[in-house]
Design a protein that fits this description.
With about 170 residues, this protein is of the alpha/beta class. The chain has one domain: P-loop containing nucleotide triphosphate hydrolases (Rossmann fold, 3-Layer(aba) Sandwich). The chain is built from seven helices and five strands; from the N terminus they run E-H-E-H-H-E-H-E-H-H-E-H. Helix 2 crosses helix 3. It is globular. The termini are close together. The mean pLDDT is about 90. Belongs to the shikimate kinase family.
Length: about 170
């Protein structure tokens, strides 16, 4: 397919893996969070603090729904799945890959959530957020890559193998 979109919780490595995957495939790389910051001329955490969570999600939805790309790996923010228009658009222009990690492994990886610009509602825990989003990631994913006990190279190889299998099925 023309593009690849990476979705998943914060900390699963969407941006890191996206850059390396783009190099591997000879694709461009776009970080949707950086597109949001560029459009808004503010950091994600500033947008969340000034616009509130719903305001941020509306901006994120609009930015992701307007991405035009070809032969590009797109790393999205973890909350992109709250935007129906964005996810429908990304699903039309790309193969959507969900980078899946268990809650336990994810909790170990993540530091300060507020500094990461993570969209947490008042009183919501990381566990609540995880359970709420996993359902959405699974709903929108064309391919799910389980990262459990895999290093970066193993995750990349799983993605490349899955993309090859996926393209054989569509030709």
């Amino acid at each position: 397919m023309k593009n690849i979109v990476l979705i998943g919780m914060p900390g699963v490595g969407k941006s890191t893996i996206g850059v390396i995957l783009a190099k591997e495939l000879g694709y461009q790389f776009v970080d949707a969070d950086l597109l949001i910051q560029k459009q808004e001329k503010r950091l994600l955490k500033e947008i969340i603090s000034e616009e509130g969570i719903e305001g941020f999600i509306a901006i994120e939805n609009q930015v992701n729904a307007s991405i035009e790309a070809n032969r590009t790996v797109i790393a999205t923010g973890g909350s992109v799945v709250y935007g129906r228009e964005a996810m429908e658009h990304l699903g039309e222009i790309a193969t959507v890959i969900y980078l899946k990690l268990s809650y336990k492994a994810l909790r170990k990886r993540l530091g300060n959530l507020k500094n990461r610009g993570v969209v947490l509602r008042d009183g919501q825990t990381l566990k609540d957020l995880y359970e709420e989003r996993v359902v959405l990631y699974e709903k929108y994913a064309d391919i799910t890559i389980d990262e459990e006990n895999k290093n970066l190279e193993e995750t990349l190889q799983s993605i490349v193998d899955s993309l090859e299998l996926n393209s054989e099925g569509t030709e």
